[in-house]
Amino acid sequence: MTDTLPETADTDELLAELRAWLRGAWDPDLTVAAWWERLGTSGWAAPTLPTHAFGRGLARSVGVQVTNEIAAAGVVGAPYGLGLLLAAPTIADHGTPEQIDTLVRDIVTGRAAWCQLFSEPGAGSDLAGLTTRAELDGDEWVVNGQKVWTSLGQTADLGMLIARTSPDAPKHRGISYFAIDMHQPGVEVRPLREMTGHAMFNETFLTDARVPADALIGGRDRGWAVANTTLGYERSGLGTGGGSRGTVVMPGSVAGNLDRRVGDFAPTPRDRPPARAETAARPSRRDDLLTGLARGNGTSTDPLVRQDLIRLYTLNELGRLNAERLKATRAAGGDVPGMANIAKLSMSAVMRLTRDLGLRIVGAQGMLHAYDPVDQATLDAATGNPFLPGVTGSALYAQAPSIYGGTDQIQRNIIGERVLGLPKEPGADKDTPFAQLLRNG
Question: Are 398 and 286 in contact, with CB atoms under 8 Å apart?
């Protein structure tokens, strides 16, 4: 993605242009699909994408202001999910013009929902050790293997798949990146129920699944570079310092929203957020919720609680300022190496502190959690605290961020080796053909 718009008076002009466009384009009686077609092809659904990929080439913080402006107008925003977050920018960077015209268009217009088929039971932290195979058969690739931690796989139309296409090449050099149809008979998705009660993650079994040759992204055996692009966008998106406001509407054919009236999903119009990124890019955060709870039950008088509330606020502000620093540096033609990894580490720290601080604020009520709406209503009535699920849900979920998207240890290794120039860990298998590597039976 490119950062081409400086955050000056041009931003105010851009937002004025957006408001004028919304006044003429928004029609609550359209279907969701028809509205997303207008929004996506105009460049407003994914304004940080390059202009050649249905975007406007805006900096991330300006893109947040666009999203907030759409929400403030009481208008349904962009399709939610990994398509817009990961697949679209990756394809914009590595895809052919034909792939951009079809795959990215279907993402920004909500026609297709995506999932990520990277991790495997035996290839998580060492992702390049994956064993899922793709073998060329005429003008198609035949895929066999197993993936795990497939977020939103049960509602996906397409998947970002990395598979081994040259087992006789070293492990990092024999991987290719595909867009795979998730609806075909050779793809089986099994939900994994988490301790939060949800099943966002899945395991996916691929048995003689087929991928057309033109769905290969970035070239044969060049998938490791493409995958690292996706991981970079993932870490930036998961890290501290981003965020925006808006109504979440799931895209794709499985969610069943495309033919529904878009006005039924529209948020309530509200006061427009200030145009400057210092305030507009700051969404409602966990420190706001916990501060309100602490004031309400009196724990805000505890000096340790007050200290950690300030610590949580500070971590969030550092994340936001780092995002602004990166944006300004890129606008000037530079970069801040490792910032995506730093943001990912910061997010893990924020989640752990949110868990510990939240449970300390709510006290014994933190041992109570409901897993369905009926039980939740009973629990709300018993505790008189409708905000409790936010605390307990975050506490149960807090273990995940330090694992998914690359563990904290992996992030530190990347920063140490690629940013600070520290010696790499010994890797005798770097140039060994993958087929000759020793593996557990």
Answer: no
In whole angstroms, give the CA distance from residue 218 to residue 93.
Answer: 9
Q: Do 248 and 360 share a domain, yes or no?
A: no
- Tell whether 151 is covered by a domain: no
Q: Which token pair is 76?
A: 């349904």
Alpha carbon distance 262, 33 (integer Å): 8
Cβ-contact 226, 218 below 8 angstroms: yes
What are 145-183's pLDDT values in tens digits? 999 989 889 999 999 999 999 999 999 999 999 999 999
Query: By C-alpha distance, which of 248, 252, 249, 250 is closest to 112?
Result: 252
* Structure-derived torsion over alpha carbons of residues 157, 106, 162, 226, reported in degrees to the nearest 10: -160
Note whether 250 and 299 are same-domain residues. Answer: no
CB 108 within 8 A of CB 78: yes
User: 414 and 355, same structural domain?
Assistant: yes
Give 3-state DSSP helix, strand, coil % of the chain, rounded to 5.
50, 15, 40
Confidence of residue 72 (pLDDT cuts 50, 70, 90): very high
Q: Let me know whether 341 and 413 are in one domain.
A: yes
Clarify whether residues 251 and 395 are in a common domain.
no
Do 255 and 398 share a domain, yes or no? no
Q: Taking Cα atoms as reference points, which of 281, 273, 279, 275 lies closest to residue 327?
A: 281
Pair type for strands 201-212 and 216-217:
unpaired
Q: Give the relative orientation of helices 339-362 and 223-238 as an angle to the nearest 10 degrees.
A: 40
Q: What is the largest CA-CA distance in the chain?
A: 71
Phi first, then psi: what are they for 202, rounded to 5°?
Answer: -145, 165
The C-alpha atoms of residue 129 and residue 439 are separated, in whole angstroms, by: 9
As a whole number of angstroms, the distance between CA 329 and CA 83 comes to 27
Per-residue pLDDT reduced to its tens digit, 330-372:
777 788 898 888 988 999 999 999 999 999 999 999 999 988 8
- Which segments of 303-431 does DSSP mark as H helices, in order? 303-331, 339-362, 373-383, 388-397, 408-414
- 60 within domain boundaries: yes
Q: Is 80 domain-assigned?
A: yes
Range of the domain at 64: 9-111+236-265
CATH of the domain at 359: 1.20.140.10
Residues 254 and 288 in one domain: no
- Structural domain includes residue 206: no
DSSP 230-272: HHHHHHHHHSTT----------HHHH--TTSBGGGGPPPP-PP
